[in-house]
Design brief:
The protein has helices spanning about 35-50, 70-85, 95-110, 150-155, 170, 175-180, 195-205, 225, and strands at about 5-10, 15-20, 25-30, 60-65, 90-95, 110-120, 125-130, 135-145, 160-165, 185. By secondary structure, it is of the alpha/beta class.
């Protein structure tokens, strides 16, 4: 029987939904800053209608766990939890950075990807991903929030050719030329649920699922840093 997984993501300016049934994927994706709450549910209804299935027929519900916009991550996980509660579905958290690596392979066949999302406050959400033989991705080191200066001081030289993904490269355009290895600018700026659902199938096969109650976001930036901004709680 084909595995059926729905993925939902609102962690960045993108708003996206994807449904995987076996090897087939139905998806919707729209650049919609500040419109996630009005866009996401109709998109979910649309992909389920296209597939002719009900929410309760799914095997799992995947969600963009972050990093990304604090508000966007909370919107996505809240909607996903509500759906999972109602349909009694297990959940799978998928990294937005890993999703951009998969998007870079889907569009450019890149197997070594430098992911960086603009985290504001002079920092980046950063990770390096290498594609595995089975099509899943290996995280090299850790996902982290880091300033460009600290990143350059600590990143290690590497003989592979790398492709970039994410908005961090637009926010800090000088960073690319200062890296100690061969890196080219890629076209992927945001995570997309059609890439998240690809990653979710590997996690599902490994049994990496949680209940709706246990689903949680990954912000990377600690609350102490966030509270430094006036008026933030």
């Amino acid at each position: 029987m084909s595995t059926k997984i729905l993925a939902v993501d609102t962690a960045t300016e993108n708003c996206s939904v994807a449904l995987m049934i076996g090897d087939d994927v139905i998806s919707r994706c729209e650049y919609a800053p500040r419109e996630h709450t009005t866009k996401i549910l109709p998109m979910i209804d649309a992909v389920l209608a296209d597939a002719g299935i009900k929410l309760k027929q799914l095997d799992a519900l995947a969600y963009g766990r972050g990093p990304g916009s604090f508000t966007g991550v909370r919107i996505g996980i809240g909607i996903a939890q509500g759906l999972a509660f109602g349909a009694n579905l297990p959940m799978i958290g998928v990294s937005t950075l890993a999703a951009m690596a998969q998007g870079s392979f889907r569009l450019h066949q890149a197997e070594h990807v430098l992911t960086a999302i603009d985290a504001r406050m002079g920092e980046l959400y950063w990770a390096q991903y290498q594609r595995k033989i089975d099509g899943d991705w290996l995280l090299l080191g850790n996902e982290q929030v880091i300033s460009p200066d600290v990143l350059l001081a600590n990143v290690q030289a590497d003989p592979n050719a790398w492709l970039t993904a994410g908005t961090g490269w637009e926010a800090y355009p000088e960073l690319l030329s200062q890296l100690p290895f061969n890196a080219q600018r890629g076209s992927v700026l945001y995570p997309d649920s059609q890439d998240m659902v690809h990653l979710a199938k590997y996690a599902f096969a490994r049994g990496e699922i949680v209940t709706a109650e246990a689903a949680s976001p990954v912000y990377l930036r600690d609350t102490v840093t966030w509270k430094k901004l006036p008026g933030r709680e």
